[in-house]
Design brief:
370 residues, alpha+beta, Thrombin, subunit H, 4 helices, 21 strands
Length: 370
């Protein structure tokens, strides 16, 4: 009898109390595991998001730096800098273009700047040619001292001191005479040069600058915090806009001038948000000022994609996310309390920021001094 009772008792299973205790211990262990996983996953997402910001900012800055280094290539006459370039496409006058290697359009109240870079696409010869016979406005051919490096479909800029510049396209290079044609078979050449050539045309001694295919690249930040590149296509007079990098919240730029007494030493001594009277001339931003532009200082502010969870009062725990201070660069504080479109961003402290800053030499200006 007693052995039988022991067998029944050993097969009776867990009691209700034992089951309740086991469930309680399991739930407690599960809660601890989930809390550890949640903290770890949050840290992983924060780290990954910060790494993404670093990559995005680096890509954006590298792209701008590469183009700024080529700024002004093909514009080999320093006196032509700042010249107003008139042009027409399919008989429609185009917006006036300023012959500047780098143009910085400042954002209002700390909003992102816009950086525009101009250069020539010529990959062989890009030297100026001199007009040797007066060129009347209605004429469609230009007599030059050389056609070296000039090819059909090249875009060229006519320059003469005291006159606006004119953009024209080469439609032919006849043999026998050293000249080029710019007939209205090209959409860039209106009949008779109407509305774009100076009334008196260009005199002998004026210059033609060979830009090949005109390269104009514009960098900006849109309302969605994307770094955009607008690439001008001269063949169709259109621009192709592409997104370079996401989560770029600000772009700041400054001109670097050599303001020392002429001739200077091609070293930057003054940083300015805008064009300045660098050579004590009477017109700010004339060829004397622009030819003293030897560097551009840039800062790109990238933001992590992850919005850290705010506290009940709407602020973020700065010990685990970001500093309460706004990012800075050599040119001052970068205002990230506003979105790129100017709207307020109350959650700006809930992000991590990375600022990439560099000084880029405008080497085509420097090489002219050597």
């Amino acid at each position: 009898m007693f052995p039988h009772q022991n067998i029944r008792r050993s097969n009776s299973g867990f009691s209700l109390v034992e089951i309740m205790i086991g469930i309680g211990l399991g739930l407690a262990s599960l809660i601890i595991i989930l809390q550890i996983f949640s903290v770890f996953e949050g840290q992983k997402r924060t780290t990954t998001s910060g790494a993404d910001a670093q990559v995005n900012g680096g890509v954006a800055l590298f792209s701008i730096e590469r183009d700024v280094r080529m700024a002004g290539y093909g514009v080999n006459v320093p006196a032509a800098f700042g010249c107003t370039v008139n042009s027409s496409y399919n008989g429609i006058n185009q917006p006036v273009l300023s012959l500047m290697p780098v143009t910085i359009i400042k954002g209002i109240n700390g909003l992102p700047d816009v950086v525009k870079i101009l250069s020539s696409s010529k990959d062989n010869w890009s030297i100026p040619a001199r007009i040797i016979v007066d060129h009347p406005a209605p004429a469609s051919n230009v007599f030059l001292n050389t056609t070296l490096g000039i090819a059909v479909n090249d875009l060229m800029v006519a320059y003469e001191a005291g006159k606006d510049c004119t953009l024209l396209q080469v439609t032919g290079i006849p043999s026998g005479n050293v000249q080029i044609h710019h007939q209205n078979t090209s959409p860039w050449n209106p009949p008779g040069g109407q509305n774009i050539f100076p009334a008196a045309g260009y005199s002998a001694g004026a210059m033609l600058l060979n830009l090949g295919a005109l390269v104009i690249r514009t960098y900006s930040v849109n309302a969605q915090s994307d770094m955009l590149l607008s690439d001008f296509v001269s063949a169709t007079n259109t621009s192709i806009v592409q997104t370079l990098a996401p989560n770029i919240v600000n772009l700041q730029a400054q001109y670097g001038f050599d303001t020392r007494t002429s001739p200077g030493d091609a070293r930057t001594d003054t940083w300015s948000d805008t064009m300045i009277d660098a050579d004590s001339s009477t017109v700010i931003g004339d060829s004397g000022d622009i030819s003293r532009l030897y560097a551009v200082r840039l800062a790109v502010a990238a933001r992590s994609a992850l919005l850290e969870k705010p506290k009940p009062d709407g602020t973020c725990d700065i010990t685990t996310t970001t500093s309460a201070n706004m990012p800075v660069w050599s040119g001052g504080t970068i205002d990230v309390s506003k979105n790129p479109d100017g709207t307020a961003n109350a959650s700006w402290t809930c992000y991590r920021y990375k600022v990439f800053e560099t000084v880029i030499p405008v080497r085509n200006s420097i090489w002219r001094e050597k």
